[in-house]
Amino acid sequence: MEVQVAPLRAWDDFFPGSDRFALPDLKDISKWNNRVVSNLLYYQTNYLMVAAALVSVVGFLSPLNMLIGGTVVVLVFLGFVWMSHNKDVLRKLKKQYPTTFVLAIMLSSYFLISYLGDVMVFMFGITLPLLLMFVHASLRLRNIQNKLQNKMEGIGLKKTPMGFILDALEQQEDSINKLADYISKVKE
């Protein structure tokens, strides 16, 4: 399957004034999750650029530790995804509590990296970009263009890098089901 890079969104759309940001409704976790997933898919190239800048700075300052840290995180992520596909208990945990699943990956990576060496590389080079992405995706209100673009890209979402990651975390299926429901309502 060919991976397609999502388009770079305009920076004034990505980070406008405070009028486009609001706290999520913490009582409705599914709505918050939908906002995060939609923003991760819509702004994925912008997030990649911000993360690449932060990783580059930390990698320049400590290249070997950054390489070790990145390798550990990727291997732990792949291990957790593999185990969750082979163990029903982990599959249910991943589906019901995706944040807990990601936190387990991050904590496992943290302990392995602290055993191997420099924890600050993990904190600034790996965790900070992920934290910034999550905070932005949680706080950024979706606009009409975001919603329409997500609907239009819905069928091909699994071909983007973020689509693959969200699919591995089993966060993609709900969006595709909602898209199918939306299309059937429009046809009626």
What does this structure look like?
With 188 residues, the protein is mostly helical. The protein folds into two domains: 117 residues, no CATH class; 31 residues. It contains ten helices and no strands. Helix 6 runs antiparallel to helix 7. It is globular, with a radius of gyration of 17 Å. The model has no long low-confidence stretch (mean pLDDT 75).
What brief labels describe this structure?
single chain; globular; mainly alpha; 188 residues
Structural class category = mainly alpha
Structural shape: globular
How far do the termini sit from each other? Answer: 33 Å
How big is the Rg? 17 Å
The proportion of strand residues reads under 5%
Overall number of domains:
2
Q: pLDDT under 50 segments (min length 5)? A: none
Mean pLDDT equals: 75
What is the string of helix and strand elements?
HHHHHHHHHH
Largest sheet: none
Number of H- or I-type helical stretches = 10
Helix content: over 70%
Number of strands: 0
Write the layout of secondary structure elements.
Blueprint: H1 11-14, H2 29-42, H3 44-61, H4 63-86, H5 88-96, H6 98-116, H7 119-139, H8 144-153, H9 161-168, H10 173-187
Helix pairs in contact: 2-7, 2-8, 3-4, 3-7, 4-5, 4-6, 4-7, 5-6, 6-7
Subcellular location: Cell membrane; Cytoplasm, Cytoskeleton; Endoplasmic reticulum membrane; Membrane
Pfam family, one: PRA1
Organism: Pheucticus melanocephalus
